[in-house]
Protein backbone atom coordinates (compact mmCIF):
# COMPACT_ATOMS: atom_id res chain seq x y z
CA UNK A 1 0.00 0.00 0.00
CA UNK A 2 1.55 3.35 -0.97
CA UNK A 3 2.31 5.63 1.95
CA UNK A 4 0.25 8.81 2.16
CA UNK A 5 2.26 11.88 1.28
CA UNK A 6 1.89 15.09 3.23
CA UNK A 7 4.66 17.44 2.15
CA UNK A 8 5.80 19.83 4.82
CA UNK A 9 4.44 23.36 4.33
CA UNK A 10 7.50 25.47 3.51
CA UNK A 11 6.04 28.87 4.34
CA UNK A 12 4.64 27.74 7.68
CA UNK A 13 7.91 26.09 8.65
CA UNK A 14 10.01 29.13 7.68
CA UNK A 15 7.71 31.54 9.50
CA UNK A 16 7.85 29.35 12.58
CA UNK A 17 11.64 29.31 12.38
CA UNK A 18 11.79 33.12 12.13
CA UNK A 19 9.93 33.50 15.38
CA UNK A 20 11.06 30.41 17.35
CA UNK A 21 14.67 29.61 16.44
CA UNK A 22 17.17 29.40 19.27
CA UNK A 23 19.95 31.95 19.34
CA UNK A 24 22.88 29.59 18.86
CA UNK A 25 26.33 31.19 18.51
CA UNK A 26 27.36 29.18 15.44
CA UNK A 27 24.31 30.50 13.57
CA UNK A 28 25.24 34.14 14.04
CA UNK A 29 26.58 36.34 11.21
CA UNK A 30 30.33 36.29 10.73
CA UNK A 31 30.86 32.70 11.85
CA UNK A 32 33.24 31.02 9.38
CA UNK A 33 32.79 27.69 7.64
CA UNK A 34 35.53 26.26 9.84
CA UNK A 35 33.77 27.38 12.99
CA UNK A 36 30.53 25.84 11.74
CA UNK A 37 32.40 22.62 11.02
CA UNK A 38 33.76 22.63 14.58
CA UNK A 39 30.22 23.03 15.93
CA UNK A 40 29.03 20.09 13.84
CA UNK A 41 31.81 17.85 15.15
CA UNK A 42 30.87 18.79 18.70
CA UNK A 43 27.12 18.47 18.22
CA UNK A 44 27.28 14.99 16.70
CA UNK A 45 26.72 13.27 20.04
CA UNK A 46 26.53 16.06 22.60
CA UNK A 47 23.60 18.35 23.52
CA UNK A 48 23.63 22.02 22.52
CA UNK A 49 23.85 23.32 26.11
CA UNK A 50 27.09 21.45 26.77
CA UNK A 51 28.60 22.36 23.42
CA UNK A 52 28.06 26.12 23.58
CA UNK A 53 30.69 27.11 26.19
CA UNK A 54 33.31 24.73 24.81
CA UNK A 55 32.71 25.95 21.25
CA UNK A 56 33.00 29.61 22.26
CA UNK A 57 36.32 28.98 24.03
CA UNK A 58 37.54 26.84 21.17
CA UNK A 59 36.97 29.33 18.35
CA UNK A 60 38.41 32.17 20.43
CA UNK A 61 41.57 30.13 20.93
CA UNK A 62 41.78 28.42 17.53
CA UNK A 63 39.70 30.42 15.04
CA UNK A 64 41.09 28.78 11.89
CA UNK A 65 42.09 25.30 10.70
CA UNK A 66 45.79 26.26 10.75
CA UNK A 67 45.53 27.55 14.32
CA UNK A 68 43.92 24.26 15.36
CA UNK A 69 46.48 22.22 13.44
CA UNK A 70 49.31 24.09 15.18
CA UNK A 71 48.00 23.08 18.61
CA UNK A 72 49.20 19.82 20.09
CA UNK A 73 46.87 16.83 19.96
CA UNK A 74 47.00 16.72 23.76
CA UNK A 75 45.88 20.35 24.10
CA UNK A 76 43.03 19.68 21.69
CA UNK A 77 41.96 16.75 23.87
CA UNK A 78 42.16 18.97 26.95
CA UNK A 79 40.05 21.67 25.32
CA UNK A 80 37.47 19.05 24.31
CA UNK A 81 36.84 18.74 28.04
CA UNK A 82 33.72 16.83 28.99
CA UNK A 83 32.05 16.74 25.58
CA UNK A 84 32.48 12.98 25.47
CA UNK A 85 33.40 10.65 22.62
CA UNK A 86 36.92 12.15 22.51
CA UNK A 87 37.86 10.40 19.28
CA UNK A 88 35.98 13.28 17.68
CA UNK A 89 38.58 15.71 19.03
CA UNK A 90 41.38 13.70 17.48
CA UNK A 91 39.57 13.54 14.15
CA UNK A 92 38.86 17.27 14.28
CA UNK A 93 42.55 17.94 14.83
CA UNK A 94 43.41 15.72 11.84
CA UNK A 95 40.73 17.44 9.79
CA UNK A 96 42.21 20.85 10.62
CA UNK A 97 45.66 19.64 9.54
CA UNK A 98 44.36 18.44 6.17
CA UNK A 99 42.44 21.66 5.51
CA UNK A 100 45.43 23.78 6.47
CA UNK A 101 47.89 21.76 4.38
CA UNK A 102 45.81 20.80 1.35
CA UNK A 103 42.97 23.32 1.07
CA UNK A 104 44.70 26.65 1.70
CA UNK A 105 43.23 26.86 5.21
CA UNK A 106 39.71 27.05 3.78
CA UNK A 107 36.97 24.50 4.36
CA UNK A 108 35.99 23.02 0.98
CA UNK A 109 32.51 23.92 -0.22
CA UNK A 110 31.46 20.87 -2.20
CA UNK A 111 30.10 17.76 -0.58
CA UNK A 112 32.39 15.29 -2.36
CA UNK A 113 35.55 17.09 -1.20
CA UNK A 114 34.17 17.54 2.29
CA UNK A 115 33.61 13.79 2.46
CA UNK A 116 37.34 13.19 1.95
CA UNK A 117 38.20 15.01 5.20
CA UNK A 118 38.96 13.06 8.40
CA UNK A 119 35.90 12.69 10.61
CA UNK A 120 33.49 14.15 8.04
CA UNK A 121 30.64 11.83 7.13
CA UNK A 122 27.40 12.08 5.17
CA UNK A 123 25.66 14.32 7.65
CA UNK A 124 28.54 16.68 8.47
CA UNK A 125 29.54 17.22 4.82
CA UNK A 126 26.02 18.27 3.90
CA UNK A 127 25.54 20.34 7.03
CA UNK A 128 28.64 22.40 6.19
CA UNK A 129 27.68 22.76 2.52
CA UNK A 130 24.22 23.92 3.56
CA UNK A 131 24.81 26.01 6.70
CA UNK A 132 28.17 27.55 5.75
CA UNK A 133 27.88 27.75 1.97
CA UNK A 134 24.10 28.06 1.59
CA UNK A 135 23.79 25.15 -0.82
CA UNK A 136 20.61 23.28 -1.62
CA UNK A 137 21.56 19.87 -0.27
CA UNK A 138 19.54 17.55 1.96
CA UNK A 139 20.81 17.53 5.54
CA UNK A 140 19.54 14.55 7.50
CA UNK A 141 20.06 14.04 11.20
CA UNK A 142 18.00 12.10 13.74
CA UNK A 143 15.63 15.01 14.26
CA UNK A 144 14.97 15.45 10.55
CA UNK A 145 14.39 11.73 10.05
CA UNK A 146 11.83 11.75 12.85
CA UNK A 147 9.93 14.76 11.47
CA UNK A 148 9.79 13.23 8.00
CA UNK A 149 8.65 9.88 9.38
CA UNK A 150 5.80 11.52 11.26
CA UNK A 151 4.67 14.46 9.14
CA UNK A 152 5.22 12.84 5.74
CA UNK A 153 4.92 9.09 6.26
CA UNK A 154 2.54 8.97 9.20
CA UNK A 155 4.83 6.83 11.34
CA UNK A 156 5.70 7.16 15.01
CA UNK A 157 9.43 6.96 14.38
CA UNK A 158 11.87 6.71 11.53
CA UNK A 159 13.11 3.16 11.95
CA UNK A 160 16.64 2.18 10.98
CA UNK A 161 18.57 4.78 8.98
CA UNK A 162 19.06 4.33 5.25
CA UNK A 163 21.21 7.10 3.86
CA UNK A 164 19.91 6.68 0.31
CA UNK A 165 16.25 6.70 1.27
CA UNK A 166 16.63 9.37 3.96
CA UNK A 167 18.48 11.75 1.63
CA UNK A 168 15.92 11.18 -1.14
CA UNK A 169 13.06 11.84 1.29
CA UNK A 170 14.48 15.19 2.36
CA UNK A 171 15.65 16.16 -1.12
CA UNK A 172 12.03 15.82 -2.27
CA UNK A 173 10.92 18.29 0.42
CA UNK A 174 13.51 21.01 -0.26
CA UNK A 175 12.23 24.19 -1.89
CA UNK A 176 13.68 24.85 -5.34
CA UNK A 177 14.69 28.40 -4.54
CA UNK A 178 17.17 30.19 -2.28
CA UNK A 179 15.16 29.34 0.82
CA UNK A 180 16.37 25.71 0.71
CA UNK A 181 19.23 26.15 3.25
CA UNK A 182 16.94 27.94 5.67
CA UNK A 183 14.34 25.20 5.20
CA UNK A 184 16.98 22.62 6.15
CA UNK A 185 18.01 24.33 9.37
CA UNK A 186 14.35 25.01 10.20
CA UNK A 187 13.42 21.35 9.75
CA UNK A 188 16.24 20.32 12.06
CA UNK A 189 15.32 22.95 14.64
CA UNK A 190 11.68 21.89 14.48
CA UNK A 191 12.62 18.29 15.24
CA UNK A 192 14.91 19.34 18.07
CA UNK A 193 12.44 21.62 19.83
CA UNK A 194 8.84 20.76 18.84
CA UNK A 195 8.55 17.36 17.15
CA UNK A 196 10.76 15.77 19.77
CA UNK A 197 11.33 12.06 20.24
CA UNK A 198 9.56 11.45 23.52
CA UNK A 199 7.03 14.25 23.88
CA UNK A 200 6.18 16.02 20.61
CA UNK A 201 4.47 19.33 21.31
CA UNK A 202 1.70 18.76 18.77
CA UNK A 203 -0.46 21.46 20.35
CA UNK A 204 2.14 24.04 19.29
CA UNK A 205 2.83 22.51 15.89
CA UNK A 206 2.93 25.09 13.09
CA UNK A 207 2.46 22.52 10.32
CA UNK A 208 -1.06 22.41 8.90
CA UNK A 209 -0.59 18.82 7.76
CA UNK A 210 0.91 15.92 9.63
CA UNK A 211 0.29 12.39 8.40
CA UNK A 212 0.89 10.89 11.84
CA UNK A 213 -1.64 13.25 13.42
CA UNK A 214 -4.14 12.53 10.60
CA UNK A 215 -3.83 8.83 11.34
CA UNK A 216 -4.57 9.38 15.01
CA UNK A 217 -0.97 9.04 16.25
CA UNK A 218 -0.56 5.25 15.79
CA UNK A 219 2.02 3.72 18.10
CA UNK A 220 5.37 2.61 16.79
CA UNK A 221 5.89 -1.03 15.95
CA UNK A 222 9.60 -1.29 16.75
CA UNK A 223 11.07 -2.04 20.18
CA UNK A 224 10.94 0.83 22.65
CA UNK A 225 14.20 2.76 22.67
CA UNK A 226 16.14 2.29 25.87
CA UNK A 227 17.59 5.40 27.43
CA UNK A 228 21.36 5.03 27.30
CA UNK A 229 22.80 5.13 30.76
CA UNK A 230 26.27 6.54 31.31
CA UNK A 231 27.09 5.56 34.87
CA UNK A 232 29.21 2.45 35.00
CA UNK A 233 29.82 2.24 31.27
CA UNK A 234 33.20 1.89 29.58
CA UNK A 235 32.66 5.44 28.32
CA UNK A 236 32.60 6.68 31.89
CA UNK A 237 35.76 4.78 32.74
CA UNK A 238 37.53 6.12 29.66
CA UNK A 239 36.49 9.61 30.70
CA UNK A 240 37.88 9.12 34.21
CA UNK A 241 41.21 7.89 32.87
CA UNK A 242 41.44 10.78 30.41
CA UNK A 243 40.63 13.23 33.21
CA UNK A 244 43.76 12.08 35.06
CA UNK A 245 45.91 12.65 31.98
CA UNK A 246 44.29 15.97 31.09
CA UNK A 247 45.19 17.25 34.51
CA UNK A 248 48.93 16.73 34.13
CA UNK A 249 51.55 17.81 31.62
CA UNK A 250 53.81 14.84 32.29
CA UNK A 251 53.28 11.07 32.04
CA UNK A 252 51.76 9.23 35.00
CA UNK A 253 52.32 5.76 36.40
CA UNK A 254 49.86 2.93 36.07
CA UNK A 255 49.11 3.21 39.79
CA UNK A 256 48.15 6.88 39.38
CA UNK A 257 45.74 5.91 36.61
CA UNK A 258 44.33 2.96 38.50
CA UNK A 259 42.89 5.08 41.30
CA UNK A 260 40.57 6.72 38.77
CA UNK A 261 38.41 3.57 38.66
CA UNK A 262 38.60 0.92 41.33
CA UNK A 263 35.13 -0.61 41.00
CA UNK A 264 35.95 -3.08 38.26
CA UNK A 265 39.61 -3.59 37.41
CA UNK A 266 38.89 -5.67 34.29
CA UNK A 267 36.71 -2.87 32.97
CA UNK A 268 39.43 -0.35 33.76
CA UNK A 269 42.01 -2.42 31.86
CA UNK A 270 39.66 -2.70 28.90
CA UNK A 271 39.02 1.04 28.90
CA UNK A 272 42.73 1.83 29.02
CA UNK A 273 43.43 -0.61 26.19
CA UNK A 274 40.78 1.04 24.05
CA UNK A 275 42.26 4.49 24.68
CA UNK A 276 45.66 3.18 23.58
CA UNK A 277 44.16 1.55 20.49
CA UNK A 278 42.32 4.77 19.61
CA UNK A 279 45.58 6.69 19.86
CA UNK A 280 44.19 9.03 22.52
CA UNK A 281 46.69 7.78 25.10
CA UNK A 282 50.22 6.52 24.62
CA UNK A 283 52.71 4.64 26.72
CA UNK A 284 56.25 5.83 27.36
CA UNK A 285 59.32 3.64 27.05
CA UNK A 286 59.41 3.24 30.84
CA UNK A 287 55.77 2.11 30.98
CA UNK A 288 54.02 5.30 32.08
CA UNK A 289 51.00 6.82 30.33
CA UNK A 290 50.35 10.19 28.69
CA UNK A 291 47.93 11.94 26.37
CA UNK A 292 48.74 11.42 22.71
CA UNK A 293 51.92 13.29 21.73
CA UNK A 294 53.07 13.81 25.29
CA UNK A 295 54.67 10.41 25.88
CA UNK A 296 57.97 11.30 24.30
CA UNK A 297 58.75 13.88 26.99
CA UNK A 298 60.50 11.33 29.16
S1 LIG B 1 1.65 17.31 14.72
FE1 LIG B 1 3.07 16.56 16.29
S2 LIG B 1 4.00 14.75 15.36
FE2 LIG B 1 3.07 15.93 13.69
S3 LIG B 1 4.74 17.20 12.90
FE3 LIG B 1 3.61 18.41 14.43
S4 LIG B 1 4.75 18.07 16.35
FE4 LIG B 1 5.37 16.47 14.92
UniProtKB/TrEMBL annotation:
EC number(s) from the headed UniProt entry: 3.2.2.31
The UniProt record lists the keyword Metal-binding: yes
Catalytic activity: Hydrolyzes free adenine bases from 7,8-dihydro-8-oxoguanine:adenine mismatched double-stranded DNA, leaving an apurinic site
Required co-factors: [4Fe-4S] cluster
Pfam family, one: HHH
SMART domains: ENDO3c
KW Hydrolase (keyword) present: yes
MF terms in GO: 4 iron, 4 sulfur cluster binding; 8-oxo-7,8-dihydroguanine DNA N-glycosylase activity; adenine/guanine mispair binding; metal ion binding; oxidized purine DNA binding; purine-specific mismatch base pair DNA N-glycosylase activity
One of the GO biological process terms: mismatch repair
Sequence ranges assigned to domain HhH-GPD in this UniProt record: 42-193
Entry's transmembrane regions: none
Keywords, alphabetical: 4Fe-4S, DNA damage, DNA repair, Glycosidase, Hydrolase, Iron, Iron-sulfur, Metal-binding
Similarity comment: family membership: Belongs to the Nth/MutY family.
The name this protein goes by in its record: Adenine DNA glycosylase
